Amino acid sequence: MQVGSMGDIPFVVSYGKIRTFSDYGRSGSGRWAKHDLIGRKPVMEFLGPDVEKISMKIQLRTDHGINPESELERLRKMRDTGTVFPFILGGAPVSNNYWMLEDIGENVSYWRAGGKILSVTVDITLTEYSTEEVR
């Protein structure tokens, strides 16, 4: 069963294969300009919304039918080439915009002979990529 996808990487839960995420968090803020005035409090001006961020953990394990090393390479390539992609959850896009993989943190839990990874937890941060035209 597919839970969602991050570009061409599907999040799936099925017999023999589990690739999903945990600790999902989403944040966003507004952009504000502060205009300093002599002898008075500054005047704040709302500029518009800022890009949103999504953080989550992905556990990649060989006993879940996943090759952790090839999956890590795939994620690093997305980060290092500036790939932008739709992020889908429950069959619907998370926003009207695309996303980019801004940050990856890797924590290897278990190794096997020859230095091959058995299990790794990947912390990722996605940043919204606005597809609006600049006027």
TrEMBL record:
Highest taxon, organism lineage: Bacteria
InterPro entries named among the record's database cross-references: Myoviridae_GpU
Full protein name: Phage P2 GpU
Lineage: Bacteria, Bacillati, Bacillota, Negativicutes, Acidaminococcales
